[in-house]
Amino acid sequence: LPGLHVLAIAFALEVSVGKTNTVMALNNSDVLLPCVFATCMGFQDLVFTWYFNSTELIYHGKIKNKATEPTLVARNPRVDFVGSTTKKDNNISIVLRNVEFSDAGKYTCHVKNPKEKNAQHNATIFLTVVQKMVETDNTVTLIIVGVVGGLIGLLILFMLIKRVVLFIIKKTQDGKKECLVSSSGNDNTENGLAGSKAEQKAPPKA
């Protein structure tokens, strides 16, 4: 099917903001907005942009190739690039300085790769700005730990070890990424930008 081939090309480029796509920041603090991209075909003259609420461009960068760090094209004065693309993970994260309540909203990390027939993909983070961080009530948890502390401790240790092992396995598999990749569900690309998944859903049958 010719349509399937186009889909394979489109998803060879993948952009991710990690497992959670919501970030909370204190008013007047600095906040990290994480983003990484992956491509099995490599990249040349790759372009990445960060948008606030889909329309306001807050950072625009270009990367010549894997051996070079990004060059700045344009940016909001309060935004700094903190990633690195000469390392393994193709990190294009930014930091937003002196966060204000008006900064709350949707931040989209968008990538376009000319080497993959201009394949495009993006991922979204939702930022919430608060006056102070509220601590959750852990009384019930403390009681449970007090009663069966040893068992819970072992269980938590096991879960941590399992997570580290799974992380190592995932990192090993990342190096063997195939070109036919499905987009992860937390990318939230239904935001009207190029590379959106919104166009791919079939209309419901009557």
Automatic annotation (TrEMBL):
<keyword id="KW-0812">Transmembrane</keyword>
<dbReference type="GO" id="GO:0001518">
    <property type="term" value="C:voltage-gated sodium channel complex"/>
</dbReference>
<feature type="signal peptide">
    <location>
        <begin position="1"/>
        <end position="18"/>
    </location>
</feature>
<dbReference type="InterPro" id="IPR013783">
    <property type="entry name" value="Ig-like_fold"/>
</dbReference>
<feature type="region of interest" description="Disordered">
    <location>
        <begin position="178"/>
        <end position="206"/>
    </location>
</feature>
<dbReference type="InterPro" id="IPR000920">
    <property type="entry name" value="Myelin_P0-rel"/>
</dbReference>
<protein>
    <submittedName>
        <fullName>SCN4B protein</fullName>
    </submittedName>
</protein>
<dbReference type="Pfam" id="PF07686">
    <property type="entry name" value="V-set"/>
</dbReference>
<keyword id="KW-0325">Glycoprotein</keyword>
<keyword id="KW-1133">Transmembrane helix</keyword>
<keyword id="KW-0472">Membrane</keyword>
<keyword id="KW-1015">Disulfide bond</keyword>
<feature type="compositionally biased region" description="Polar residues">
    <location>
        <begin position="181"/>
        <end position="191"/>
    </location>
</feature>
<dbReference type="GO" id="GO:0086002">
    <property type="term" value="P:cardiac muscle cell action potential involved in contraction"/>
</dbReference>
<dbReference type="GO" id="GO:0017080">
    <property type="term" value="F:sodium channel regulator activity"/>
</dbReference>
<feature type="transmembrane region" description="Helical">
    <location>
        <begin position="140"/>
        <end position="161"/>
    </location>
</feature>
<dbReference type="GO" id="GO:0044325">
    <property type="term" value="F:transmembrane transporter binding"/>
</dbReference>
<dbReference type="InterPro" id="IPR003599">
    <property type="entry name" value="Ig_sub"/>
</dbReference>
<dbReference type="GO" id="GO:0060307">
    <property type="term" value="P:regulation of ventricular cardiac muscle cell membrane repolarization"/>
</dbReference>
<dbReference type="InterPro" id="IPR013106">
    <property type="entry name" value="Ig_V-set"/>
</dbReference>
<feature type="domain" description="Ig-like">
    <location>
        <begin position="2"/>
        <end position="126"/>
    </location>
</feature>
<keyword id="KW-0732">Signal</keyword>
<keyword id="KW-0393">Immunoglobulin domain</keyword>
<dbReference type="InterPro" id="IPR007110">
    <property type="entry name" value="Ig-like_dom"/>
</dbReference>
<dbReference type="InterPro" id="IPR036179">
    <property type="entry name" value="Ig-like_dom_sf"/>
</dbReference>
